[in-house]
């Protein structure tokens, strides 16, 4: 990669101040902040820049390990099932984008012009992905302890809220809330028994929003509700 | 937890020799080898023993990070999509149970009598889960570098095979092979377009084995095939 420009260096410096960590390899941090749309735009003017997609892939695993380790060590009474539910909730786009907003990550993103115009700077999926890329950059630059030093305090609040039940990851309830808010009606479940157990469809205003398979009616409905919730939340962002 | 028995200590020692790592905390290794069925049996005779389920949860994240880091660092040309596919294939039950067999993990398991009778010692799901628990025990006892020292060489072979295309993770092809072998016929796909894109059913001998949702017909079929493959492989083991 080519040298960083002065304006870019200034952006990195400001973010380093907020996360209280100074990168040895500034280009790692820069790459973590480069959305595909920016990399594409730069490549068109022959500036070789990598997007943050590969870092995001690594960072997803880094954050998951941090969450799993915290749950394992600090909540010894929690079962595998509970830990697994909390992990999904904490390592989700919803949570990670909230943390990204706390460190004002949107402000530091490098975006292409098109993405900028359509509100990419505040889009949850982009913010969550970039936070993952930042986690990977921290990991590669300073090791796992550095990731812990910078990100654990943010994740811990969510872990505690989910473990203590302050936050809800009951998808059937969540779907009900969303449906009432957005469609002014309640979701309906249509569940049939078959060779694989039960198949459940969640129907909102006549449209199937999620299909779930499970060994019980309850499980099939829960899975269908989860899919519907994710579909609705994702489509709201785009 | 109570003290380890002499017979148990001997088992641990033999496994330590094979993996070429000596645990500081022997109880961690012991817990990693204790299947739920053994923990339940011991609890019934008032011996307080924890099963390996919580370690397995942590170990899943440890192995994923090891695979992701290897892909990121050693295959800089691989895209996020490729890395993601290879990660799923390598961190799968199929691969992890193969590695478990290479270190003869089945031989060292602590199983309840019922599980022993029904062939638990050779069951892929149990072997893969135990390998994950071992990864967590290594992580807690010696840190991430210890996990690397012990497990990376095994995982690397699979990573290389998948990246180079020697091993196949094309689920539609895999399903075709399985269906011909087990049902002497080919799978059929029934795909319909709907509000969410496409929904595809894989039908074998008149029975639905998997349902997939996708933004294209191809994607919906691929997901349906993946679900069917997993369903068939899981039901063969039980």
Automatic annotation (TrEMBL), chains A, B:
One of its GO terms (molecular function) is ribonuclease III activity. Its EC number is 3.1.26.3. Keywords: Cytoplasm, Endonuclease, Hydrolase, Magnesium, Metal-binding, mRNA processing, Nuclease, RNA-binding, rRNA processing, rRNA-binding, tRNA processing. Residues 12-143 form the RNase III domain. It catalyses: Endonucleolytic cleavage to 5'-phosphomonoester. InterPro entries: dsRBD_dom, RNase_III, RNase_III_dom, RNase_III_sf. Its cofactor is Mg(2+). It is found in: Cytoplasm. Mg(2+) binds at residues 56, 129, 132. Residues 170-234 form the DRBM domain. The active site is at 60, 132. Its main location: cytoplasm. Homodimer. NCBIfam families: RNaseIII. PANTHER family: RIBONUCLEASE 3, RIBONUCLEASE III. Belongs to the ribonuclease III family. Digests double-stranded RNA. Involved in the processing of primary rRNA transcript to yield the immediate precursors to the large and small rRNAs (23S and 16S). Processes some mRNAs, and tRNAs when they are encoded in the rRNA operon. Processes pre-crRNA and tracrRNA of type II CRISPR loci if present in the organism. This is Ribonuclease 3. It comes from Thermosipho ferrireducens. The lineage of its organism: Bacteria, Thermotogati, Thermotogota, Thermotogae, Thermotogales.
């Amino acid at each position: 990669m080519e040298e960083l420009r002065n304006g870019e260096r200034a952006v990195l410096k400001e973010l380093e101040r907020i996360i209280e960590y100074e990168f040895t390899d500034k280009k790692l941090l820069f790459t973590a902040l480069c959305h595909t749309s920016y990399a594409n735009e730069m490549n068109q003017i022959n500036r070789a820049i990598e997007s943050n997609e590969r870092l995001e892939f690594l960072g997803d695993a880094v954050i998951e390990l941090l969450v799993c380790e915290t749950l394992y060590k600090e909540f010894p009474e929690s079962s595998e099932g509970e830990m697994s539910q909390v992990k999904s909730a904490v390592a989700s786009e919803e949570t990670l984008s909230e943390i990204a907003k706390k460190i004002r990550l949107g402000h530091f993103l490098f975006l292409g012009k098109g993405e900028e115009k359509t509100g990419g700077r505040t889009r949850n999926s982009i913010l969550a992905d970039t936070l993952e890329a930042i986690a990977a950059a921290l990991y590669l630059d300073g090791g796992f302890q550095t990731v812990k030093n910078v990100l654990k305090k943010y994740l811990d609040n969510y872990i505690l809220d989910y473990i203590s039940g302050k936050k809800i990851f009951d998808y059937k309830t969540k779907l009900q809330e969303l449906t009432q808010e957005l469609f002014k009606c309640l979701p309906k479940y249509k569940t049939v028994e078959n060779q694989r157990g039960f198949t459940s469809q969640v129907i909102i205003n006549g449209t199937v929003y999620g299909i779930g398979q499970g060994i019980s009616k309850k499980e099939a409905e829960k899975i269908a509700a989860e899919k519907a919730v994710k579909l609705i939340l994702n489509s709201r962002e785009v």
